[in-house]
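Example record

Each entry pairs one chain with its bound ligand, L-rhamnitol.
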Amino acid sequence: MTTLERYLDAKERYAAIGVDTDAALKALAAAPISMHCWQGDDVGGFDRDGALTGGIQATGNYPGKARTPEELMADIDKALSLIPGTHRINLHASYAIFKDGEFADRDELKPEHFAAWVEFAKERGLGLDFNPTYFSHPKASEFTLSSPDEDIRQFWIRHGQACIRIAEYFATELGTPSLVNIWIPDGFKDIPADRTAPRARLKDSLDQILSIDYDKSKVYVAVESKVFGIGMESYTVGSHEFYMNYAAKNDILCLLDNGHYHPTEVVSDKIPAMLLFSDKLALHVTRGVRWDSDHVVIFDDETKEIAKEIVRNNAIDRVLIGLDFFDASINRISAWVVGMRSMQKALLYALLTPNEKLAAMQNDGEFTELMVLQEELKFYPFGDVWNYFCEINHVPQKEDWFAEVKKYENEVLVNRK
Ligand code: RNT
Ligand code: ZN
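Structure tokens for the complex follow.
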């Protein structure tokens, strides 16, 4: 049987339970995912050589890490060629590209330092998202936006403002809004004596960053909370409650990273709650294994539940989906492709779920029927619909894409010493 024949067969089986597979494919094609550039070089960036700091960690030493902007762009191209649909690239400020001999510190970054990325995105029809980099920098060795040292705090405020201007430039050049996500690593290793003052300083810093004049239809600013980081086990300045309230009061976005909550809390349950109060919200989809370990996103239960909440709430346009992981122990391009394709598979799985029918069962108290159908759905011919989506988007089906990655590894990546 051909891919099309299998698809047509699947289409009939889904139609029998009221699911329109053609509509699902159309909706999936219109769901961009922001692919984080930092999986390609273990969150290294180009603006300095030092170690990764901020209580996050990329472990592993697989050959082929991108060392230059050219290598990173080539690797992104390779990954995108194996991922169906058109997506976005998520950059960090540390990925500024300086001309020979030039250098600008983080508080002096300008659009011109990202011109090469804009050109890259334009040629490929990609949108760009952005993140100020509040780590891996000598001035980020202790605190950033919550620093008690006023000079340091002002330095990082200027960085945040510079990033908004750069994102506005992205949006103008590319004709699609740019998300600026603020995450800071500030916190205490041990029990603090004052939990309020650092948060008051962070609040004031955010106010100052947002006080610049920028076009809110072009730049969406988001704040990303966290429960703890390495070396900041006892207290995180940018906690969930802090940012959720800050975002609500200031009409900006909350970004939920599903590695950033207590282990039994799930982001899939937070999405519908947030959507009742916010027009838009942003996600960092990741996979925490025992802690915020940033493993590659796979087609697991929580990723599926996250996708279901987005789809059921008819919120593909309101939830800005980005990925956030950094695994240096496996082929980095493969990590991107697995993560992106898994997120898309989760969305497709949600789009192929008879959501209204299931909701009606819940409403009518038919919990036995609900369980039975939810279990049976797991064995519907989802893979045949996915393979057809790959075929019509001209990317390899099933595991066939991996041969391309292996070839690239043998021809290109192994030569990076
Ligand atoms: C850290 C946050 C943050 C970073 C990236 C590199 O815990 O998740 O989003 O992973 O900005
Ligand atoms: Zn994150």
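The longest helix spans residues 150-174.
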